[in-house]
């Protein structure tokens, strides 16, 4: 952010220093980069995963604000592209929602990291930082099917 004054008078004071028709720059503060995020995906399951990055922005001290926030695209590197659902499989909205669309593939083992997604974030008041999302294959939890009741009669004299 830059501030320029065109007045000949000394109208501004900054930390006790008077300014006369000078340009100066206010440096953006640094913010602690968010921790690495892990997105689990599953073998043999086509699915669209979403992560709301806006909700994961690092917390600021009281009275501080990011100002305007821009999620400047994304970069992704997958070691196993078989899971990606086409060229638009990864996207980030201007509101900061990351979308990852996968197809039903099974070329990686459970626990394998198959990709990394980075999303640069630019704000008015803070230096640029980025989110890093690891994409890892996870074991699927088997769905629980309700057992159908048995047709046989239970004897009232049955013992356990």
Compose a concise summary of this entry.
With 160 residues, this protein is mainly β. The chain has no helices and twelve strands.
3D structure, described in words:
There is one protein chain. This protein has strands at residues 2-3, 12-14, 17-19, 24-25, 37-42, 47-52, 69-71, 75-78, 90-92, 97-102, 113-123, 129-138. It is mainly beta and 160 residues long. A hairpin with a 2-residue loop joins strand 2 and strand 3.
Into which percent range does the helicity of residues fall?
under 10%
Low-confidence regions: 147-160
Our count of helices gives: 0
Question: What summary fits the major beta sheet?
Answer: 5 strands, mixed
Q: End-to-end distance, in Å?
A: 79 Å
> What is the ordering of alpha helices and beta strands?
EEEEEEEEEEEE
Computed Rg: 27 Å
What is the topology?
Blueprint: E1 2-3, E2 12-14, E3 17-19, E4 24-25, E5 37-42, E6 47-52, E7 69-71, E8 75-78, E9 90-92, E10 97-102, E11 113-123, E12 129-138
Parallel strand pairs: 5-12
Antiparallel strand pairs: 1-4, 2-3, 6-10, 7-11, 8-11, 9-10, 11-12
List key phrases describing it.
single chain, 160 residues, mainly beta, 5-stranded mixed beta sheet, 3-stranded antiparallel beta sheet, 12 strands, 0% helix
